[in-house]
Specification:
This protein has 194 residues and is mostly helical. The protein is built from 7 helices and 2 strands.
Length: 194
Amino acid sequence: MNLQKLFNMQKQLDDHIMDEHPELKGQDNLDWKILALQVELGECANEWRGFKKWSNDQEPRGQGTYLEYGCKCEGVGNRWVKKNPLLEEYVDCLHFILSIGNDLGYNDITEEWVSEQGDYSEETTTDTFILLLEHAADVYTYEKAYRQYMYETLFLAFIALGLDERHLGFTWQQIEKAYLDKNEVNHKRQNTGY
């Protein structure tokens, strides 16, 4: 996965969003981006389902490929069809993580750097989701002197959540493909007044 490419694509999407919503230009948008990330993390956990100990259905929602353009419904025009809701929610989180990194100027992260850092996730997936929610809040609340460290820790734990077989078990290729597909959808949404 080319993280620099993804950071750049996210900047293009964020610029597109700012063009469509000029009231956001020139202001600090960190508060709502952190909250949006936390909401998306919750949605990702919901598709993972492993924390739902009260349910007999704790299997993750996501099989096969990510998004497919087309429709299996007769009489309905072409549309994006979800194929892997868990991966879709994961890349929704990735969009906000990249956006926050761009806003804060912490966008020089590479795959090599990530692999050198080791595993920043917790032993269980539930604990990793909780850690991610805490780290997102820390990026917002910590003094600027500590923000980069908190962002990098958030980023590393998030990547570990996605890649580690103990957790979601995606591949770099699946994540990148899903990001590219969803980024295209997000651009189309801006063009149509989403």
